[in-house]
Amino acid sequence: MLSMRCKIRVSASGVHLFDRVSGVNVLLDEVRVPAGQFSRAPRYLSIALTNACELRCFYCYAPKHAAALDRDRVLAWAVELDVAGCLGVGFGGGEPTAYRRFAQLCSEIAQSTSMAVTFTTHGHRLTPELVSSLRGAPVGQCGSRVGHYDGALLRPRSSRHSLR
Ligand code: SF4
């Protein structure tokens, strides 16, 4: 039996049900919602946690100085966005796994909100320890960047990989 705890987001498109554990999305587009009840947050938020990255891809647009966002501020944003109807946060950069205590931040957001937590990475820092920490977070998916993912730690069947 399928068991889900759905988060609900309402917009001009209808009523959006989302389960971060299974990844199921259902849009009830026949439901009309008054504009005054629309969720105030964006459906999904992408955050560049840090500009730091040890690689130098020729097509990269990210500045290479190692600026990083304050973790308490990121957590506070996540809590506020969750209440306002955001369904998920995706971390990028730079290289998000270069962010200090990255797995802990993912875990805190997962526990403090009902949002999905995902990230995009070059994959080189995905040690078994980090993958194990992220499984416990729980982080839904990590996306690999074309050209840098070596497939040694996660099977490269597609450009997105579940950590569960
Ligand atoms: S891995 Fe990403 S952030 Fe790092 S240099 Fe390449 S494109 Fe830029």
UniProtKB/TrEMBL annotation:
Organism name: Streptomyces tibetensis
UniProt keyword annotations, A-Z: Iron, Iron-sulfur, Metal-binding, S-adenosyl-L-methionine
Gene3D superfamilies reported in the protein's UniProt record: Aldolase class I
InterPro entries: Aldolase_TIM, Radical_SAM_PqqE_MftC-like, rSAM, rSAM_sf
Domain of life (superkingdom): Bacteria
Signal peptide (residue range): none
Protein name stated in the entry: Radical SAM protein
Radical SAM core domain sequence ranges: 49-139
Pfam family of the protein (one): Radical_SAM
Presence of the UniProt keyword Iron-sulfur in the record: yes
UniProt key word Ribonucleoprotein: no
